[in-house]
Design brief:
Two copies of one chain form a homodimer. Chain A is of the alpha+beta class. The first copy, chain A, contains five helices and ten strands; from the N terminus they run αββββαβββαβααββ. In chain A, strands 1, 2, 3, 4, 5, 6 and 7 form a seven-stranded mixed beta sheet that branches. Chain A has a three-stranded antiparallel beta sheet with strand order 8-10-9. In chain A, β9 and β10 form a beta hairpin. The radius of gyration of chain A is 23 Å and the shape is globular. At the A-B interface, α1, α2 and β5 of A face α1, α2 and β5 of B. Chain A binds a DNA duplex (27 and 27 nucleotides) through α5.
DNA sequence: AGAATAGTGTCTATCAGACACTATGCA
DNA sequence: TGCATAGTGTCTGATAGACACTATTCT
């Protein structure tokens, strides 16, 4: 079956001697293709709560329902111009929906959702990304150039809100990925401001994992992060209602002397 | 931009009162769409070596080069018939390429590769899966109904073999996912026969991680797996050139009494 | 008996939770 | 001085590596 035009390769090509000759003669066939979108699960942490940005749909289907931001991957004409990379599409949608420019947020693909009939209109395959917005940037998020409303939702209050399409599944998968990765990756540093205290970093872990962390064990963790060169102390102290706290910064950029 | 037909939603829909009315009137638009394929990284472990199944391409582009098995996702007409799920497509390709029926192998999506120009012909977005073949089933793998050669390659010998398309990247990502997940998931039990010894399971970990494991610590791990109800002892002993070894089996199906 | 493989006991190092304790600011 | 928050010291329990030791089969 693979060698047939319908499911194997794009066309019968064995009679071309060189790859150049083949490509020059190649014409894209017109078999049915799915639409491909990127969907974004945009996270932030505010007051020990993990929050996600949703938009309210203005049109059918699922008119009025809340949904993940997203949009189509632009593929050009598919031959001379193959369009934008998936990451480019995700960054473009992130900026369109939130106003946050590329580079201000961590963005990572985590799964692809392509079940038949997940969109009632036509076959749509959606590559899902999660974005991490530092808590101090959360305020800057505007509704985008979209007429629809955009707002931050706590995960806890989302239990009773039906989301459009299979977006509840996508959101659940994103949370699972974030929870699994935060202990073995520097993801947490993308959810705190560039300068942060031990308590702020701990609150990020608590919000993501949904369980309290021992402040004392967490200080040990901070000391190990310093010993390993992952973070370092920054100048100054953060003053609050008690003893001023040490301020840290992520050190990954300075590890190369 | 999202509200325009080209990049926002599939069509302007705000003038429909109900979702049913909208769907009845909906016609798929004809914007450029990418081709979508599934690619398979099929792993097995033989004699402490992690191996992957590759096929040799019979046509351009990359004629003669070794590549991951894969093929197009069938999407029907995209409206009344939206075609097969991504997992179905992966299972279908696995059976076509190896003769291994659905259910005999573990299959999991791990990433999607959609960079522009990764296929010189046209825009192709590929959802990558890895499959785990039990070592005792490895022999049953036939070349499939494809004329091209299929053979198992050790990861170590693949360093000098250039793969087609971006398949070297896909393979590297698959190995990274497998390595990261094997310690925190039951994946290893899909790489050994249904009945296995401690040494066989240990060899799977060694092959996947690429480092030797202490046999003594590994026995402790077996005892904990039994205590946690993950595995259980099977009847009989495996006889070899030394003391016969205990035989174990995965217990996940029997945890519910 | 000796080789070969399976499996245990025990010491040690590492790390997390628990909790008592000290440190340093503010009102 | 009392309160609030930051941060340390230390005990305990769980787990991995190292290694000496025992167990069971084959030749």
């Amino acid at each position: 079956m693979r060698e047939s035009d319908a499911s194997g390769k794009l066309s019968s090509t064995d009679h071309f001697d060189t790859e150049e000759a083949f490509l020059a003669a190649y014409k894209a066939q017109d078999y049915p293709k799915p639409s491909v979108t990127v969907d974004l699960v945009i996270f932030t942490v505010e007051t020990t709560d993990l929050k996600v940005l949703l938009i309210q749909r203005g049109g059918h289907p699922f008119k009025g329902a809340w949904a993940l931001p997203g949009g189509f991957v632009l593929v050009g004409d598919g031959v001379k111009d193959q369009g934008e990379d998936l990451e480019e599409a995700a960054h473009r949608e992130l900026e369109e929906e939130t106003g946050l420019p590329k580079g201000s947020c961590y963005l990572q693909q985590f799964a692809t959702f392509g079940e038949a009939y997940r969109d009632p209109r036509t076959r749509v395959i959606s590559v899902a990304f999660f974005a991490l917005v530092r808590s101090n940037l959360m305020e800057l998020v505007v509704a985008g150039d979209d007429a629809a409303a955009a707002s931050w939702w706590s995960l806890s209050e989302l239990g009773s809100v039906p989301l459009a399409f299979d977006h509840a599944d996508i959101l659940a998968a994103a949370v699972a990925h974030l929870r699994a990765q935060i202990d073995v990756s520097p993801l947490a540093f993308s959810l705190v401001p560039a300068m942060f205290t031990a308590a702020e970093l701990r609150e990020v872990f608590e919000a993501v994992k949904g369980v309290p962390y021992e402040a004392t064990s967490f200080h040990r963790r901070m000391r190990r992060l310093i010993a390993d060169g992952i973070i370092k102390e920054a100048r100054g102290k953060r003053r609050g209602s008690g003893r001023p706290s040490t301020v840290y910064q992520f050190a990954a950029r300075e590890t190369k002397p």
